[in-house]
UniProtKB/TrEMBL annotation:
Name of the molecule in the record: Elongation of very long chain fatty acids protein
Family: Belongs to the ELO family.
Broad class of the protein's primary localization: membrane
Keyword Ribonucleoprotein found: no
Enzyme class: transferase
Transmembrane domains' residue ranges: 57-76, 82-105, 117-139, 151-177
Membrane topology, record value: Multi-pass membrane protein
GO cellular component terms attached to this protein's record: endoplasmic reticulum membrane
One Gene Ontology term from the biological process aspect of the record: fatty acid elongation, polyunsaturated fatty acid
Keywords from the UniProt entry: Fatty acid biosynthesis, Fatty acid metabolism, Lipid biosynthesis, Lipid metabolism, Membrane, Transferase, Transmembrane, Transmembrane helix
Species this chain originates from: Drosophila virilis (Fruit fly)
Record-listed E.C. numbers: 2.3.1.199
Amino acid sequence: MDWYSLRPHNLSCITMMPQDHPLKNIDRLLSYAYYINKYFDLLDTIFIVLRKSYKQISGLHLLHHLYMPITGYYVIRFNGYGGHLIVMGVLNLFVHVVMYSYYYISSQIPPAKRRIWWKEYITLLQMLQFVIIFAHNIWTLMQPRCEISRVLTYMVFFMSVAMFLMFTNFYTHAYILPKKKKKKQKKVAHD
């Protein structure tokens, strides 16, 4: 029997497993991994400040890295482990593995930083993550008999929309506008 078939839910309404469920420790592990990861993100911000690399810190960066550890604490404290939010946590852990792999490679091999072509796609992956979280929350809210915290679901829904908009703004300023500016400069130089 596989792990998923033992879980007492389906993807449209992921309820929390009972405390005595044989797989409850997996929910605990995933919840704590997500929660601890938020503190590593916060440490990342602290190290940026200590290095005085202020240009790396944006409103998005600050909001996300200050908001998420606090939110993670309250979710675990008042909601418990797993359930509906496991989708968000697993997606976010995956995105962070990809993102921190890029940071590690670029910090250990500085010449490679210019040749790592997938940096831009990390931001797109983050945006896709928020679209999936947004859609998953909409779908869950549409289930009339789903017994999960509606308040928490709305909170995650609005957070995913806000984060998507902030990442879209970042993506536009970091990748789209510079390409347009470069293209315009080439055209002026060519004429």
